[in-house]
């Protein structure tokens, strides 16, 4: 008997603690993807690596459609996309605020809206900062508190959801 479960991991991490933070070089990203893919494939797990802006509804829909053409139905998701840009509230620009909250707020909502409602799991990796707050991270705290609220919203509707506040 063959059991086929498709789980999706939406993960990205951009950390901008300084104005001119350098992203990981493309070669490092490709190497990490290759290593993860090799480990999973050695365990007979079929993998695919897709790049999209999780806060873009159109890109999420296109990516899910691409997955649907090769993989079985998605039965679970782990949402761990995030962006950091620390600054005091009065020094936070609207652009920086949006850049930090978009992956967690709009990204989580896009996944909630576009993925099947009967998934076995919907896990969002959040932070305790959403509960306790942290100096210079009002935007990040708001994004994490949103994920906690989205988990409650989904569970109230009988859907799987967990927000794990790491810290």
TrEMBL record:
Domain Ketoreductase: 32-167
One Gene Ontology molecular-function label: fatty acid synthase activity
Gene3D superfamilies: NAD(P)-binding Rossmann-like Domain
One Pfam family named in its UniProt record: KR
Superkingdom, taxonomy of origin: Eukaryota
Coiled coil regions, renumbered to chain: none
SUPFAM superfamilies, sorted: NAD(P)-binding Rossmann-fold domains
Gene Ontology BP term (one): secondary metabolite biosynthetic process
Protein name: Ketoreductase domain-containing protein
Organism field: Letharia columbiana
């Amino acid at each position: 008997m063959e059991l086929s479960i498709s789980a999706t991991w939406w993960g990205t991490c951009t950390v901008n603690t300084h104005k001119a933070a350098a992203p990981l070089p493309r070669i490092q990203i490709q190497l990490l993807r290759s290593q993860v893919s090799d480990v999973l494939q050695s365990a007979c797990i079929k993998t695919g690596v897709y790049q999209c802006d999780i806060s873009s509804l159109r890109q999420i829909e296109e990516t899910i459609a691409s997955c649907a053409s090769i993989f079985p139905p998605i039965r679970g998701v782990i949402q761990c996309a995030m962006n950091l840009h620390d600054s005091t509230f009065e020094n936070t620009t609207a652009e920086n605020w949006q850049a930090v909250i978009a992956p967690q707020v709009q990204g989580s909502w896009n996944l909630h809206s576009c993925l099947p409602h009967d998934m076995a799991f919907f896990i969002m990796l959040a932070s305790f900062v959403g509960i306790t707050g942290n100096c210079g991270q009002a935007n990040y705290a708001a994004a994490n508190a949103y994920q906690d609220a989205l988990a409650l919203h989904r569970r109230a509707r009988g859907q799987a959801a967990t927000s794990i506040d790491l810290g």
